[in-house]
């Protein structure tokens, strides 16, 4: 073979190999960069999720602290005041007895409200007996306090779940109910609890005026309740779908995986 042609062929092969090497390096580098960016995104999402989880945990700690202070400190003082007034009523003249009894009635009402607020902050029924009874207690209180009717259905012998799951589900139902009452002006709420495919399914519907999600979320004030719900669901890997149109109520379907 002509030495010149041989040199050209060798040069061509070398250049081709160098080209393949460069292309291979570029592909490898891009894949590595893509993997790094993907890992960075995943790390950022995990960090945000942990921060959110910590924030919710702190909220519950603060709720418990306030609840205990209300129950033990304020409740104790009001109970002592009630006993003192009761003792005083036996020693006063008839002319002031009515005022003393009225004061006792006010203290009794205040004591009842403090105990109720304490229970609202920390749902002790939830901790002791589980989601089913806690929701029934919440519904009873809401029906007494507002012109609101509930239909609550669930599986027979609904089992206990992980405490984090039960608390998240309870808070979500609270938030949805508050939204239905304050914003949707609903008169009927239906709640259904089922376990489907190893997940707790919550179906929540109301007959309120409905909403447009985009417009609600664009308003910080109006969207805050939904934001709290979405935040809780993201921490526990929950999923949701919903259907709502103006003047046609709303339906949420929430799915929460069970924890070991």
Describe how the helices and strands are arranged:
Layout: H1 3-89, H2 94-121, H3 124-129, H4 131-145, E1 149-154, H5 163-182, E2 188-196, E3 199-206, H6 213-218, H7 220-235, E4 239-244, E5 250-257
Please name the defining characteristics of this protein:
260 residues; alpha+beta; Heat Shock Protein 90; 2 domains; 5-stranded mixed sheet; 5 strands
Summarize the structure.
The chain is α+β, with helices and mostly antiparallel strands and 260 residues long. The protein has helices at 3-89, 94-121, 124-129, 131-145, 163-182, 213-218, 220-235, and strands spanning 149-154, 188-196, 199-206, 239-244, 250-257.
What does this molecule look like?
The chain is α+β, with helices and mostly antiparallel strands and about 260 residues long. The protein contains 7 helices and 5 strands. The protein has helices at about 5-90, 95-120, 125-130, 130-145, 165-180, 215-220, 220-235; strands at about 150-155, 190-195, 200-205, 240-245, 250-255. The chain has a 5-stranded mixed β-sheet, covered by helices on one side. The termini are far apart.
CATH topology of the largest domain: Heat Shock Protein 90
Name of the CATH superfamily of the largest domain: Histidine kinase-like ATPase, C-terminal domain
What is the annotated CATH architecture of the largest domain?
Answer: 2-Layer Sandwich
Roughly how many Å apart are the termini? 75 Å
Overall mean pLDDT: 75
Strand order of the largest sheet: 1-2-3-5-4
Number of strand elements: 5
Could you say how many structural domains there are in total? Answer: 2
- If you compute it from the alpha carbons, what radius of gyration comes out, rounded to the nearest whole angstrom? 31 Å
Helical content, roughly? 55-70%
